[in-house]
Specification:
The structure holds two protein chains of two kinds. By secondary structure, chain A is α+β, with helices and mostly antiparallel strands. Helices cover about 50% and strands about 15% of the residues of chain A. In chain B, about 50% of the residues lie in helices and about 15% in strands. Chain B folds into three domains: about 110 residues, Acyl-CoA dehydrogenase/oxidase, N-terminal domain (Butyryl-Coa Dehydrogenase, subunit A, domain 1, Orthogonal Bundle); about 110 residues, Butyryl-CoA Dehydrogenase, subunit A, domain 2 (Beta Barrel); about 150 residues, Butyryl-CoA Dehydrogenase, subunit A, domain 3 (Up-down Bundle). The chains are: A alpha+beta, B alpha+beta.
Chain lengths: ~400, ~375
């Protein structure tokens, strides 16, 4: 029972800090907040690649880091401390893990280096208009035609499909058995004929979500990952990865810091909001929960360090992590008071007042999705009830 | 003891509900919000013809002579339709100040124009540094001859973009946060030295930051007694909070009804999601949140109707409960709608955003909990 850093850990921390200081430039930060986001985040990921740090969780043989669990924790904490966004997870975290575990040698050789170098932008084709929490009821059809599959159907809530070069999809190759059977995991080139991307504007007034339609899209059968009809097993493993990524303890810690900074400046009738006992109590409640979650996450990390995919405990991280994310988003938005409602305008933020308010509103509104995506928190509780507690 | 609405109140309720049903469907509202003015002048004329703009004003000025219950009926129904036409800023705030602080002559000048739909008004009271403390006021008016000269800036002025006239809160004496020395002035939005920076809010409202630079005001621009405006504004705030709470109750009712309907029709795992006990209990919780909000609103209405001073404590409590229950109700509405709840296309998120703005207007829960503690637990 010990979490103290060794001398090597401290040296590693200084190295990470030094690199972030130098590489995460103000110019890059500005671009990440601009319409140039896609190129900016790819540039950032390439900087990480050059440093060898873009995929801390990959095995070293594929280009990962071989870090200890403690080093991974240090890296993640420093990343968030510096306010650096996570890498886009669809390629580097999600599909990469699947390809490493289930892919053919050819798939590994082709896709993994491209993912590492951010040459392809990936998106995730899981949910469908009729299949949300009940993912296994998905209907997008893949029919065999020689060496190819012909895909027909639609996927929804596809984040950044408008940027994507590739989509990993769950499709139905067989209708005859149980609904979990007959699902296949397949990689589809977004430039294929018959794909249409329809934007969905979300309640934060932005376009990150999409519906993706497939009309007779021809996909080579060699793009199937794992066995045909065994996609459900692949999908479940991937969802567990998605969930641990969602917990975001380090990012919640940063949000708490931002709240403290902003609340120290905001006054009400001459009293700093940070000195208001009612406000202090709300913030303290969040911090107490957060301290505990940090160690829950560390316990999971330590277990995972022994190898293998994360298990049902990732559901716990997802539930608690998203609840805390939303609590901090709510508090920050409330500090903005009247300004929380201001829509982005081409006005000088200083002329308008309260620069942080627009981002606070966006984060709060989009943050509502966190308890819905990656398997809603209700589904996570079902998973814990069934697989951890043994309740059927 | 009865909590029934009068026949007249029921008629007003029905008339607004019919308007929302027939003339204010979701696509129509969206088009109005996106239009140049962010409101429909035709609708405003219709509101005047139907008498809705006259509700809280005395009969001698052409008003309906309604009380707080009448006003809350209007606000609840407008809330159900997410009506963006500036009823709250014009009738409740601008009109509310004129009827409270205006001389006979001022009431005769302004109220008939509000009632007739000829005038859009606003109340400019928020400043960058003020947050919810209305006494924290840097905008100042200094004596000049018979009149005054106004200087300063107000921010997030509801209906600030379209308002023809404003009531501005300004300091005529004392230091920045003194309770005494505040005064109210009626200002022509087109007067020399008045400058607007307009923008849209997430709930569809058009607002403005308004600066006053050496704006000349005549003596009769002063509304009420010089230096004694804070008590007037505090009284207005109580009525405004009750009105907004009624609107919030209307919105919560709609959100619960829509969400209940969705859980009955959306199927996952081969059954309606509403058949799951875990979700059923949560729908019961949101129903209780709505009923509790309504009950506290009724308490505030009964007290305020008897004597506005009686409602002071309850108004703070009401703001706290509406904030908490509003968040609970819209949070669950979005969550139960899943991805659909996240879309701008569906109305759920828009009802949520209006509740968020109601929560922050005239003080959020953290602020009013403190005020409640000060008022109720005072030694």
């Amino acid at each position: 029972m010990d979490t103290a850093y060794s001398t090597e850990d401290l040296a590693f921390r200084d190295e990470v800090r030094g690199f972030f200081d130098e590489a995460y430039t103000p110019e890059l930060q500005a671009r990440l907040r601009s319409p140039d986001y896609k190129n900016a985040i790819e540039d950032w990921q390439r900087k990480l690649y050059d440093k060898g740090w873009v995929a801390p969780n990959w095995p070293a043989e594929f280009g990962g880091t071989d870090w200890t669990a403690t080093q991974k924790y240090i890296y993640e904490s420093e990343r968030s401390l510096a306010g650096i966004p996570n890498v886009v997870p669809f390629g580097l975290v999600m599909v990469a893990n699947v390809i490493m575990a289930y892919g053919t040698d050819e798939q590994k050789e082709y896709f993994l280096p491209r993912i590492l170098k951010s040459e392809d932008w990936w998106c995730q084709g899981y949910s469908e208009p009729g299949s949300g929490s009940d993912l296994a009821s998905l209907k997008t059809k893949a029919e065999r035609d020689g060496d190819d599959f012909i895909i027909n159907g639609a996927k929804i809530w596809t984040t950044y499909a408008q940027y994507a070069d590739w989509i990993f999809c769950l499709v139905r190759t067989d209708n005859s058995g149980k609904k979990q059977e007959g699902i296949t995991f397949i990689l589809i080139d977004m430039k294929s004929e018959g794909i249409k991307v329809n934007p969905i504007i979300s309640i934060d007034n932005h376009h990150s979500l999409n519906e993706v339609e497939f009309n007779n899209v021809r996909v080579p059968a060699k793009n199937v990952v794992g066995e045909i009809g065994k996609g459900w097993t692949v999908a479940k493993a991937l969802l567990a990865h998605e969930r641990t990524g969602i917990a975001g303890v380090a990012d919640v810690k940063r949000a708490v810091r931002v709240i403290k900074e902003v609340a120290a400046k905001e006054e009400n009738g001459g009293q700093r909001l940070m000195d208001d006992p009612g406000f202090q109590q709300r913030l303290a409640d969040i911090e107490v929960e957060l301290m505990a979650l940090e160690f829950t996450e560390l316990r999971t990390l330590a277990t995972q360090a022994a190898g293998g995919f994360p298990g049902p405990e990732s559901s716990l991280l997802k539930i608690k992590g998203t609840e805390l994310q939303q609590a901090t988003q709510e508090l920050l938005m409330e500090i903005a008071a009247y300004y929380q409602g201001v829509l982005p305008v081409d006005l000088d933020p200083e002329a308008l007042g309260h620069e942080f308010a627009t981002e606070a509103r966006r984060n709060y509104m989009y943050g509502r999705a966190a308890t819905i995506y990656g398997g809603s928190n209700e589904v996570q509780k079902n998973i814990i009830a069934k697989y951890v507690l043994g309740l059927e | 003891m009865n909590f029934d609405f009068s026949e007249e109140q029921q008629m007003v309720r029905d008339s607004i509900a019919r308007f929302v049903q027939d003339d204010y469907d979701w696509d129509t509202r969206k088009a109005i919000v996106a239009s140049d003015q962010g409101m429909s002048r035709d609708n405003w004329q219709l509101f005047a013809e139907l008498g809705w703009l006259s509700i809280p004003f005395a009969e001698e000025h052409g008003g309906f002579g309604g009380n707080i219950v009448d006003l809350s009926v209007v606000m609840e129904e407008l809330g159900k339709g997410l009506v963006v036409e500036p009823y709250f800023p014009t009738v409740v705030l601008f009109g509310g100040l004129i009827k409270r602080a205006g001389s006979e002559a001022q009431q005769a000048e302004w109220l008939p124009r509000i009632i007739g739909g000829e005038l859009l008004g606003a109340f400019a009271y928020v400043e960058r540094q003020s947050r919810f403390a209305l006494n924290d006021c840097q905008t100042n008016a200094t004596k000049s001859g018979d009149g005054y000269v106004l200087n300063g800036e107000k921010v997030v002025v509801f209906n600030g973009e379209q308002a023809d006239h404003l009531v501005a809160l300004a300091r005529t004496s004392g230091d920045q946060s003194d309770s005494d020395g505040l005064s109210l002035f009626v200002v022509d939005a087109a007067a020399a030295g008045v400058d607007k920076m307009s923008y849209a809010m997430m709930d569809g409202q058009r607002v403005a930051n308004i600066t006053f630079k050496d704006v000349s005001l005549s003596a009769d621009a002063l509304l009420g007694e010089e230096g004694a405006a804070l008590s007037v504004v505090d009284a207005l705030t109580d009525e405004a909070i009750i009105a907004l709470s009624a609107e919030a109750v209307g919105i919560m009712g709609v959100l619960n009804a829509k969400t209940l309907e969705y859980t009955k029709t959306r199927e996952q795992f081969g059954v309606a999601i509403g058949s799951y006990q875990a979700l059923q209990h949560r729908m019961v919780d949101t129903m209780m949140a709505y009923e509790q909000s309504k009950s506290l609103l009724f308490k505030a209405l009964c007290e305020y109707k008897q004597d506005p001073a009686m409602a002071a404590e309850t108004v703070h409590a009401l703001k706290v409960l509406i904030d908490r229950n509003g968040k609970h109700v819209f949070g669950e509405a979005i969550q139960m709608h899943g991805g659909m709840g996240m879309t701008d296309e569906l109305d759920i998120g828009h009802y949520a955003k209006r509740l968020m703005m109601i929560n922050t207007t005239f003080g959020d829960a953290t602020y009013h909990r403190n005020r409640y503690i000060e008022t109720a637990y005072a030694a």
